[in-house]
Amino acid sequence: MANHKSAKTRINRNNKRNIINGARRSRVRTFVKKVEAAILENNKELALANFKVAESELMSAARKNIIPLNRAARTVSRLSHKIKAL
């Protein structure tokens, strides 16, 4: 356990950030799943609409260092290819 006041403060901050980052990560996964569900239904219009939102969420998470930038770019690229194949 931490003994210094600053160390205790840092533990509290880290716990708060962990909750916030977890929520953001979950939000990104949800939007990606919506795109993949629309792709499975062969609904190109819905997939494109969901893709636009998912891309924004992915890049936002990457800018905030919640996920690596390369992972976000790779996911966007893969979803884009799947939509184009419809």
Tally of separate helices: 3
- N/C terminus separation: 55 Å
Tell me the total number of β-strands: 0
- The CATH superfamily is Ribosomal protein S20
What structural class do helix, strand and pairing data support?
mainly alpha
Low-confidence stretches: none
What's the CATH C level? Mainly Alpha
Supply Rg. 17 Å
User: How many structural units, i.e. domains?
Assistant: 1
How much is the average pLDDT?
Answer: 96
User: Could you give a short account of the major beta sheet?
Assistant: none
Overall 3D geometry?
A: elongated
Query: Which percent band covers the strand fraction?
Result: under 5%
- If you consult CATH, what is the topology? Methane Monooxygenase Hydroxylase, Chain G, domain 1
CATH architecture: Up-down Bundle
DSSP helix fraction? over 70%
Report on this structure.
This protein has helices spanning 5-40, 44-63, 69-84. It has 86 residues and is an all-alpha fold. It has one domain (5-84): Methane Monooxygenase Hydroxylase, Chain G, domain 1 (Up-down Bundle). α1 packs antiparallel against α2 and α2 (44-63) runs antiparallel to α3. The mean pLDDT is 96.
Task: Write a concise synopsis of the structure shown.
The protein is mainly α and 86 residues long. It has helices spanning 5-40, 44-63, 69-84.
Topology (elements, then pairings):
Layout: H1 5-40, H2 44-63, H3 69-84
Properties at a glance:
single chain; 86 residues; mainly alpha; Methane Monooxygenase Hydroxylase, Chain G, domain 1; 0% strand
